Amino acid sequence: MYGDYEAQRHWMEITYNLPIHEWYENTTDNRLQYWGLDYPPLTAYHSWLCGAVASRINPSWVSLHLSRGFESYHHKLFMRYTVLAVDVLVYFTAAVVFSRLVYRNKDAMWERISLLGLLLLTPALIIIDHGHFQYNCASLGLTFWAIIAVTTDHNVTGSVLFALALNYKQMELYHAVPFFCYLLGKSVAGSGSGGEFLKRVGLLGVAVGGTFVACWFPFLGSWDQTLQVVHRLFPFARGLYEDKVANVWCSLSVLVKLRRLFSLSTLVKVTAVSTVTALVPSSWNLYETPPLSDSSWPWLTPPSSSSCSRTKSTRSRFSWHSSPAPSSPLTTLTSSPGSSYWQSSPCTLSSPRTDWFWHAAP
């Protein structure tokens, strides 16, 4: 079965060679048991683009069926460059702009450089993206751009950017709650009447809905086709957790075998309630905090709650992967870069699969 290096390569193979309606379907040419595509459409489109480039360089890298398990020095180098390209275009640019927003004073050059260095050198992101080829830099970069947009009063643009992040990786759903609460609180605080409030919220809803329709349009041909994509994105049948991940349920299983005591449907409900409960305090605080106040750090409000919400939810959710996603927002929350490093480092150690880095690196 190989590893996730092969999964990313295989997605390029499938998306480049098969018609779009087969990408999430189990067919003779696309056996979903063999690293089937299980990320949203924007990831699939990105895989297609990478596959098209790979085919131009060396067709054997993405040859249908024949390329399965393919691995070479030059292909590893290509995979590394695809991650670097997304890093530079999406994540690095957002990190540079964010650092300049946080430290606008010319006398704070060292603090700005330190924050930027931490954002670019987050251990979990480097190991998982550059050895695991998960392209978390894409969804996190889009989320950062969304934070920058909404905290500079470009709410519609921010909503579109965050919708794109959601359509790249479904794990961004855990950032969605603080985003929703922040924009809702901002709409309430900035509206002089009920009509103006509805107009603001309606505009944001149209922006998000339009972005989703654009991303999902090829998969909206039939109800069954749409449900198949949703089923692939949320594979509850895998169980409460897969293998070993850094969450509450995996840790608790040492003492109590929940998967033996309760049915799958019961566990889904329990994790849903516990996740929502964990999200409520920070999200409510974000809604109640006046986002239009004269705070000297208004742009830190969304990432602070985002980091808090994401850290809580990844520990109590149905979980199939460890995730570095809380670490980047966490890095933005302190004026002491050293302490931020020590806060984000556990995100690196929480993944039991860091050895993949050594396998995949050319």
UniProtKB/TrEMBL annotation:
Which InterPro entries does this one have? Glyco_trans_ALG6/ALG8
GO CC terms of this entry: endoplasmic reticulum membrane
Q: In which pathway does it act?
A: Protein modification; protein glycosylation
**Could you list the residue ranges that cross the membrane?**
81-103, 109-128, 140-166, 172-189, 201-223
Give yes or no: UniProt keyword Glycosyltransferase: yes
Q: Name one Pfam family in it.
A: Alg6_Alg8
**Predominant localisation class:** endoplasmic reticulum
Query: Quick one: where's region Disordered?
Result: 317-340
List the subcellular locations: Endoplasmic reticulum membrane
Q: Which GO terms describe its molecular function?
A: dolichyl pyrophosphate Man9GlcNAc2 alpha-1,3-glucosyltransferase activity
This protein's UniProt keywords: Endoplasmic reticulum, Glycosyltransferase, Membrane, Transferase, Transmembrane, Transmembrane helix
Q: Does the keyword Transmembrane helix apply?
A: yes
Q: Name the EC number(s).
A: 2.4.1.-
* Membrane topology, as annotated: Multi-pass membrane protein
So which domain of life are we looking at? Eukaryota
Class in the EC hierarchy, top level: transferase
Say which family it is in.
Belongs to the ALG6/ALG8 glucosyltransferase family.
Q: What is this protein called?
A: Alpha-1,3-glucosyltransferase
Q: Which organism is it from?
A: Geodia barretti (Barrett's horny sponge)
